[in-house]
Amino acid sequence: MNALQERILKEGKNLGNGILKVDSFVNHQVDPTLMDTCGREFAKRFANVGATKILTAEISGIAPALTTAIHLNLPVVYARKTKPITMPDQVYLTLAPSHTKGRMVELIVSPEYLANNEKVLIIDDFLASGQTILGLVRLAEASGSKVVGIGALIEKTFEGGRDVLSSVGVPIEAIARIKSMDDGKIEFV
Amino acid sequence: MNALQERILKEGKNLGNGILKVDSFVNHQVDPTLMDTCGREFAKRFANVGATKILTAEISGIAPALTTAIHLNLPVVYARKTKPITMPDQVYLTLAPSHTKGRMVELIVSPEYLANNEKVLIIDDFLASGQTILGLVRLAEASGSKVVGIGALIEKTFEGGRDVLSSVGVPIEAIARIKSMDDGKIEFV
Known about the structure:
Two copies of one chain form a homodimer. Chain A is α/β, with parallel strands linked by helices. Chain A has one domain (3-79, 111-188): Rossmann fold (3-Layer(aba) Sandwich). Chain A has helices at residues 3-11, 23-27, 32-45, 62-72, 131-142, 161-165, and strands at residues 13-14, 20-21, 29-30, 53-57, 76-79, 92-98, 103-109, 119-127, 146-156, 172-180, 187-188. In chain A, the strands form three sheets. In chain A, strands 5-4-8-9-10-11 form a six-stranded mixed beta sheet, with helices on both faces. A two-stranded antiparallel sheet of chain A has the order 1-2. In chain A, strand 4, helix 4 and strand 5 form a beta-alpha-beta unit. Chain A starts with a helix and ends with a strand. Strand 5 of chain A pairs antiparallel with strand 3 of chain B, so a sheet runs across the interface.
C-alpha cells in the first residue's frame, strides 16, 4: 500500500453516493509532503512519454500537477473555469459536468499557452466519470496538441472513467485506485 | 534583481489600469522552477515566525503557497470561493473585493482545518489593495488563530495594500515590489 492509499484509509471520508472527502490532504488542506511524493511518482511513471507540457483543471488539480511539473521540469497550464480579464478574447473553451458542483462548468485555456504540437500530460486529482479529463483532452486536441498521458491521484474505477478515456489511446495512471465505496467502506483494487 | 523580477520584465504585460498580466508563469501557465525558487525564498524569509499552517486563497495563491509549504514542511489550506459539497454547513466565510473579477467574492474555510491557536502564514500571488489578504486575516482571526506573517509574490506598492495590512502587525514580504506601472512601464522599488 502506498502513502496516498494509507492516507485515504486514515483520513478519507466516504460521504455516500460515491463521494470521497479528502479535504484534509488534497482538496482544501494540502499535505505538501504527500503531494510532492505523488508528483515524484507521476514523474517516474510518465518519464518516457515525451511530454512537453502538463495540463490540469483548476482548482484541485493544481497541487498534483505542480509537484509533477517540478519533478519533470515542465511548465504546467491550469484550465480556468472563469475567464480572467487578462485572457485574450479568443480562447479554447469546452464544457464538462462537475460532479461536486452538480452543474456544467467551463474549462478555458488561452491559445498563448497551449500551442500546436505540444505533447500534453494531463494530471488531475480525481478520475471518476472521466468527463473533466475528457474536456481537457478536447482542449489539447483543439490546440493541435497531442495528449501523451493521463494521471490522477485517485481513481474511482466503479465510475467507469478509464473506459471513457480508453479511446484517447494513452497510458492512464492512478496512484490510488478505489474499486468500491459500498456500505461506507473504501476498498482499493 | 531576482529571478521573479527578471521574469516580470521579460514576460509580464502591463495592460494598463494597474493590471499586470503574468499568465505565462504565475496565473494560468506556471513555471514550476521559478515557483519553487519563490517558495524557497519565502521559507527563508519566514523561517523564524513560528508558523504552524499556511493559508492562501484559490486559485492563483495555490502554487506559491504549496511550494512555500514544501520548503517549510507545513500544511497549506486554500480558502475556497465556492463551498464544495464536502464542506460542513458551519464555515468561516468572509467577503473580499476581486480586482480582476470586478465584484465581491466569498472566501470560505472549514473550521476542520483552521483551528484555534494556529500560527498562520498567509501567502498569495499578489499584494495590491490588500483586501484579499485582509479577508484571509479575518478568517484566521475568526478561527482563534494568529497571523504571523504575510508574503506575496508580487506587490504593487502604489495600491497601498501594505499600509492596509500594517495594523496586523506582522512581517510583510514580497519578492517583486513594483512601484509604478505608469506609461506602460514596470518599475521596481
